[in-house]
Specification:
This protein has 203 residues and is mainly beta. Helix content is 9%, strand content 33%.
Length: 203
C-alpha cells in the first residue's frame, strides 16, 4: 500500500462528496482536513474482511423504527455504489411508507435514518430522492417545486446476507454525500462527520 511504502503519512483515506455544480468533491489520501469537519468524528468498527462493513442496528423513517434489523443487519459503506441498496423486503417496507407522497411535496417526505453503533445518521428527503423537471436527467440539484414533474427514490433491491445470516444494506454515494467519510485501513474502522460546507472549494 501507499502507506507501507511511506508515500502517505497516515493509513487513512477520506471521501468528501457534495451534490453541487459549484462545490468540489474530493478524495484525500493519507488523512483528512480538519477544516472540512463540522462535528466530531464518530468511528465504527469494520465487521469481517473484504468490505467496509459496519453494524447497522436500525433503519428509521421520520424517527420511527421500521423494525427491519431486530435480528441485526450489516451496512457496507461503498463509494462504488451510487444509490442505497437493501434486501427486497426491507425496500418494500420503506417504499410503502413514502409512495403516497407527491413529487411536489418532497419536503414533506420523512427523513430516512440509519443507526450505526448507537449513532443515528439522517438523510433528508432531498438527499435520497432525485427529481426531474422533464428536460434533464434525475438530479439532486432540485428544480423549483412548481417545475418538478417526476421524482425517484434512489434505492435498489439487492438480496444478500453475511456469513452470520444478517441482511446487508449498501450505503453508497446517496448516504456518503451527506457526510465526510473516513476509512482507517490500519485500525479497521470507518469514521463519519458532518461536513463544513462553507469550506468546500468552488469550481
Amino acid at each position: 500500500s501507499l502507506y507501507e511504502q511511506d508515500k502517505i503519512g497516515s493509513p487513512l483515506f477520506t471521501f468528501k462528496m457534495i451534490r453541487s455544480n459549484e462545490k468540489v468533491s474530493e478524495l484525500i489520501l493519507g488523512g483528512f482536513d480538519h477544516d472540512d469537519l463540522d462535528s466530531r468524528i464518530t468511528w465504527s468498527s469494520v465487521k469481517g474482511d473484504g468490505y467496509w462493513s459496519v453494524e447497522l442496528q436500525d433503519v428509521l423513517l421520520g424517527g420511527q423504527s421500521l423494525n427491519l434489523c431486530h435480528d441485526g443487519c450489516i451496512a457496507i459503506i461503498d463509494s462504488g455504489t451510487s444509490t442505497l441498496t437493501a434486501p427486497t423486503p426491507h425496500l418494500q417496507g420503506v417504499m410503502e411508507k413514502i409512495q403516497g407522497y407527491e413529487c411536489k411535496d418532497i419536503d414533506q417526505v420523512p427523513a430516512l435514518s440509519f443507526k450505526i453503533e448507537g449513532k443515528v445518521y439522517d438523510l433528508k428527503p432531498e438527499d435520497y430522492i432525485a427529481t426531474s423537471d422533464g428536460k434533464y436527467m434525475y438530479t439532486y440539484e432540485h428544480p423549483p417545486v412548481d417545475q418538478i414533474v417526476d421524482c425517484a427514490p434512489q434505492f435498489m433491491a439487492f438480496d444478500a446476507k453475511d456469513e452470520a445470516g444478517r441482511p446487508i444494506w449498501i450505503l453508497g454515494d446517496t448516504f456518503m454525500s451527506s457526510l465526510i467519510t473516513i476509512f482507517d485501513v490500519e485500525a479497521k474502522r470507518v469514521g463519519f462527520a458532518e461536513p463544513n460546507l462553507a469550506d468546500f472549494e468552488t469550481e
